Amino acid sequence: MIELRPPVSAGDEVELEIESYANEGEGVGRPNGFAVFVPGAIIGEKVTAVIDTVKRSYARGHIAAIQRPSPERVDPVCRLYRDCGGCQLLHLSYQGQLEMKRKRVIDTLTHIGGLTDVVVHPVMGMADPWHYRNKVQYPFGVADGEIIAGCYAKRTHRVVPTDDCAIQHPANSQVILGVRRLASKFELSVYDEISRKGLLRYVLVKHAHGTDEMMVVLVTNSPHFPRGREFAARLAAEFPEVKSVVQNVNTAPGNRVLGERSVVLWGNDGIMERLDGLEIRVSATAFYQVNPLQTMALYGKAIEYAGLTGSERVLDAYCGVGALTLLLARRAIEAYGVEVVEPAVRDARNNAVRNGIANVRFIAGRVEKVLPELSSAGVNFDVAVVDPPRAGCEPEALHALAGLSVQRLVYVSCNPSTLSRDLRILSELGYAAVEVQPVDMFPHTSHIEAVALAVRR
User: Fold this and answer.
1) Alpha helix locations (H) across 200-252?
2) Which residues are catalytic?
3) Is the pLDDT reported for residue 2 higher than 90?
4) Which pLDDT score, from 0 to 100, does residue 85 have?
5) 3-state secondary structure of 194
6) Which residues contact 282 (CB under 8 A, 6 or more apart)?
7) pLDDT digits (tens, 9 = 90+) for 397-430
8) Is the pLDDT of residue 454 over 80?
9) Do 135 and 204 touch, CB atoms closer than 8 A?
10) Helix, strand, coil: what percent of the chain each, to 5?
């Protein structure tokens, strides 16, 4: 068998017509049918690109010149855009981003899911798509002898000091600067990935939109944090909005951010958020949606697709701290939430008590194990809602869901590829995908959230 060689080599300068987008928002040109990914290029543009790397089935390049710009091209508002890996689409108008994201959902449903008859609605965007993130998560680094924190540069682990960010809540950026100043004053060391030495690995800041309460999580490479409680008290004194400072211990190699053990250094073990009349407590390691302004748009569509009349028993799988479960419980006769992260389940149970919602039960465990146990115990559901992590559902979980014989299944996803894969599997298990509503939870990045409705045939 003759193996065809790629038509380009590293260092080549090629002219490309940009025909489509890749998963991370890069423009794609196809000289002789060979895919070349070009960050910053827009569909319809003609660009001159320099090839950086070549693989067997694709290449990557960078723009040397734009021969024919798109009318959707705009000047990036952030001075770090060319270096920082946090945003991918600041060169594209916001309307252009929404159209690109809808096309990505349609393409993945078609190519990965084999689903061509599903209605994909226009993306629900934001009126003001800036400073929306309620959570920042930065690695620490060192530059010119100074402690820094920020996003990684594109496709590297080089930390870009991010003093300000156009998509972060401004208070998050101010607290990060305060953490950096204190870390220098306390002469704390920074973790090195190669030697695996040094104390500070990551800093997380969470901001509650409904209460303005803030939490700081310092991820360390050792349980021993010299003067840690003093550090936390000094930080809280400087920023009165900070109600909780937590040390999370992660001594494992690799890129995983959070470890299993958390210790409260100052204040409470969580912060309080408000959502549609509910009070939701969020702890250090629990998942909560990062865009509070779009969260109710997302959850509202999930509730609409659930079609509850007040007489149904509803399942919320991968329920996190139980916010959506509680919203569903207010419209159902009974709701069950299943979540593998035990601190999140504790938060969910406390949130139910705090809000006086008694017709809900939260269970800690893996979805694929809990659901068969519930079925064996005679617990049946009319509607199921799933909101898995980016990797999607385990195949065993999908089979367990199908075994419940629910009539309506609502799938909330932050990854169109795994959503499409799982809808294809569910189709084989007897569920027809009817419609998908994309929701822009992450403006100016390549990410898109979507809510899908599938009904039992």
Assistant:
1) 228-238
2) 414
3) no
4) 83
5) coil
6) 206, 208, 215, 270, 271, 272, 273, 288, 321, 347
7) 999 999 999 999 999 999 999 999 999 999 999 9
8) yes
9) yes
10) 25, 30, 45
Helix (H) or strand (E) holding 328: helix 323-329
The residue with greater pLDDT, 206 or 23, is 206
* Tens-digit pLDDT profile for residues 306-350: 999 999 999 999 999 999 999 999 999 999 999 999 989 999 999
Question: Residues with Cβ < 8 Å from 388, sequence gap 6 or more?
Answer: 317, 318, 367, 397, 413, 418
Cβ neighbours of residue 440 closer than 8 Å, sequence gap 6 or more: 97, 98, 101, 123, 124, 125, 126, 129, 294, 448, 449
User: Worst-scoring range by mean pLDDT, 4-13, 62-71, 199-208, 356-365?
Assistant: 4-13
Question: If we measure between CA atoms, which residue out of 287, 214, 223, 230 comes closest to residue 261?
Answer: 223
Q: Is 157 helix (H, G, I), strand (E, B) or coil?
A: coil
Partners of residue 361 on adjacent β-strands: 336
Rounded Cα distance, 343 and 259, in Å: 13
Q: What is the DSSP string of 56-87?
A: SSEEEEEEEEEEE--TTB---S-TTTTTBSS-
The residue behind tokens 């002469």 is 187
**Measured between alpha carbons, how far is 258 from 282 in angstroms, rounded to an integer?**
15
- In whole angstroms, what is the distance from residue 448 CA to residue 437 CA? 11
Contacts of 255 (CB under 8 A, 6+ apart): none
d(CA 385, CA 309): 15
Spatial CA neighbour of 426 closest among 446, 441, 442, 406 = 406
Average of per-residue pLDDT values in the chain: 95
* CA atoms of 219 and 23, how far apart (whole Å): 30
Beta bridge partners of 162: none
Rg (CA), the chain: 23
User: Beta partners for 380?
Assistant: none
| C-alpha to C-alpha distance for 58 and 414, rounded to whole angstroms | 25
- Predicted confidence (pLDDT) per residue in 75-96, tens digit: 999 999 988 888 999 999 999 9
CB contact set of 49 (below 8 Å; sequence gap of 6+): 13, 14, 15, 16, 29, 36, 38, 41, 61, 62, 63, 64
- Cα–Cα distances in angstroms (integers) from residue 170 to residues 125, 164, 174, 179, 204, in the given order: 21, 8, 6, 15, 14
Q: What gap in Å lies between CA 340 and CA 365, rounded to an integer?
A: 4
Q: Averaged over 158-177, what is the pLDDT?
A: 95
